[in-house]
Amino acid sequence: DGVPEGESVGEVSARADEVVGWARSADRDVLVFAHGHILRALAARWLGEDLSFGARIRLEPTSLSVLGWAYGAPALERWNDTGHLELPSPSGV
Question: How much is the pTM?
């Protein structure tokens, strides 16, 4: 489907696969900043799922997520963490 005159689902999947391949080939941690739609696509492809899997993953604006490994397989180490957005309560309130 995709967006009229935008990338097709196949093109988004190929772009996500390129980033996942780059990240996996690095001999170090990598950091990726992006918007929600492509981040969900990256997570889906990181896990070896079809792009449509990303539509079922909730992701809040400005959240932090960490893709990594568990028992030798791609995993979500942290997902949709918004703890950094919580402000301390003013004292006495």
Answer: 0.84
